[in-house]
């Protein structure tokens, strides 16, 4: 037999699961029990097409979470593979240090600025949402150093905000789970109230009252710390990993007014919302947010290759531009900043989004998508809240609706629900904070896919709460 056949046979005879368990550390996976095979898995994912993936043992699954809400244009796009192959064949890599560039990197930066709010001026490329948020913090510190404000350095994030897993980004993340055990430094980071009316409002408090409370909490934090010590506020337009929480009406304009009054920069973490997820180019466009800096990743390439960007607005750029050269070159960057092949994937992805009007499609489909979840689940005795916007939806489960009593953590309701949905062929995500089932499918799903999601979720709920 040929060498290729021999190699293929050798590959297929080996137990990939065993190889994986004995070789790899997985993110967000138990260490010992996974490695020993006690928890089962790994799930070997083999291929994908549209909103569906297929495992190596032949199961077809509807990916109701688009990977990690990143495969926005869906799997298996030949035009993506072609664009990536063409760039890799021509020039897979060159760096962007000391003024080098490549055609796809320059064109993608221009394209991002065309899609971004009008005050955005420059793009700095990274590889992940986490490193882009690290870049934002460094830019904000650099900015205040140039302005001669060495004490204006703290960053306000929000409880339940998610900003990544590098040292700085995990500090920004407002969930204890991501800090415990890692000594994530809390020094320069403060956390303020999460704008979640369901849990945060006092009895009888309407949305406007709750927004006023969020604003008062922020004001009190700034007063306590001193505005001259606070550089920036970072927030996701719609909270993602913390539970898919759209902001209450009027939240962002009110928060923004406080930040302006205290000369605090606003960083919009658009890693989830950017490029169509909520039916606009950016979440900022949906909520009247006028950020100074924007973080994007995920939907920028639909995850065909890793790529992120810190987008820098006029207020920060005008300072960096005026003053940085006296210190020597801008001393920040990564080997893979502005990676040409990743940038080619970004351009091809934005081409697909434009050609297929995917952002407009989300805006049109969202009412039906949201109504389907409301109609199917809002009345269930163990559902506390059904919420969402665009093509993000969440169902939050509670033991008792009236008292909002939570299930005991040991019952693992969220994890059991997503496991039951998986049995039925649907991938959902049990969000890490509470018993929340999250949905964020590829933006290309159709009505049949939506029906499938609703039906399989209903069956999962019925199996976890039999007789209810
Ligand atoms: N910010 C937000 C809002 C995110 O949702 C994520 C990832 N889920 C990140 C940052 C971090 O991105 P990455 O995992 O690519 O580092």
Automatic annotation (TrEMBL):
Protein name as catalogued: Aminotransferase class III-fold pyridoxal phosphate-dependent enzyme
GO molecular function terms noted in the UniProt entry: pyridoxal phosphate binding; transaminase activity
Pfam name, any one: Aminotran_3
InterPro entries named among the record's database cross-references: Aminotrans_3 (IPR005814), Aminotrans_3_PPA_site (IPR049704), PyrdxlP-dep_Trfase (IPR015424), PyrdxlP-dep_Trfase_major (IPR015421), PyrdxlP-dep_Trfase_small (IPR015422)
UniProt cofactor(s): pyridoxal 5'-phosphate
Family label: Belongs to the class-III pyridoxal-phosphate-dependent aminotransferase family.
Record has Transferase as a keyword: yes
Keyword Cell membrane belongs to the record: no
Assigned GO CC terms: cytosol
CDD domains named among the record's database cross-references: OAT_like
Alphabetical UniProt keywords: Aminotransferase, Pyridoxal phosphate, Transferase
């Amino acid at each position: 037999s040929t060498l290729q056949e021999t190699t293929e046979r050798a590959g297929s005879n080996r137990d990939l699961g065993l190889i994986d368990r004995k070789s790899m550390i997985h993110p967000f996976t138990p260490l010992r029990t996974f490695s020993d095979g006690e928890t089962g898995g790994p799930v070997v994912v083999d291929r994908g097409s549209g909103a569906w993936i297929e495992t190596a043992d032949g199961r077809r699954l509807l990916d109701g979470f688009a990977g990690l809400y990143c495969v926005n244009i869906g799997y298996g796009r030949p035009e993506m593979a072609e664009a990536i192959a063409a760039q890799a064949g021509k020039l897979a890599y060159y760096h962007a240090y000391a003024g080098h560039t490549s055609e796809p990197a320059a064109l993608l930066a221009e394209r991002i600025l065309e899609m971004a709010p009008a005050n955005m001026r420059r793009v700095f490329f990274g590889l992940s949402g986490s490193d882009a948020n690290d870049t934002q913090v460094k830019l904000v510190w650099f900015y205040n150093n140039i302005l001669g404000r060495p004490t204006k350095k703290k960053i306000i994030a929000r409880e339940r905000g998610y900003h990544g897993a590098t040292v700085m980004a995990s500090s920004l993340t407002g969930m204890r789970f991501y800090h415990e055990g890692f000594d994530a430094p809390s020094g320069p980071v403060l956390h303020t109230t999460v704008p979640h009316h369901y849990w945060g409002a006092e009895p009888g408090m309407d949305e406007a009252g709750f927004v006023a409370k969020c604003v008062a909490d922020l004001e009190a934090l700034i007063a306590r710390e001193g505005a001259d010590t606070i550089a920036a506020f970072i927030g996701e337009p719609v909270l993602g990993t913390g539970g898919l929480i759209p902001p209450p009406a009027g939240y962002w304009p009110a928060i923004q007014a406080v930040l302006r009054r205290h000369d605090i920069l606003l960083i919009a973490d658009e890693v989830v919302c950017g490029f169509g997820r909520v039916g606009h180019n950016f979440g900022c466009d949906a909520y009247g947010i006028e950020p100074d800096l924007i973080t994007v990743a995920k939907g920028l390439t639909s995850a065909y290759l890793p790529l992120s960007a810190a987008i820098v607005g006029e207020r920060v750029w005008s300072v960096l531009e005026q003053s940085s050269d006296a210190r020597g070159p801008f001393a920040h960057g990564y080997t893979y900043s502005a990676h040409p092949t990743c940038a080619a994937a970004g351009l091809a992805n934005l081409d697909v989004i434009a050609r297929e009007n995917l952002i407009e499609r989300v805006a049109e489909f969202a009412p039906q998508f949201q109504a389907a979840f409301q109609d199917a689940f809002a009345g269930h005795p163990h559902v506390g809240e059904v919420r969402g916007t665009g093509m993000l939806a969440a169902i939050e489960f509670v033991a008792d609706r009236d008292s909002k009593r939570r299930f005991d953590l040991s019952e693992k309701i969220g994890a059991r629900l997503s496991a039951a949905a998986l049995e039925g062929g649907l991938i959902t995500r049990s969000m890490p904070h509470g018993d929340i089932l999250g949905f964020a499918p590829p933006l290309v799903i159709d009505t049949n896919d939506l029906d499938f999601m609703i039906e399989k979720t209903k069956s999962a709920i019925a199996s976890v709460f039999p007789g209810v």
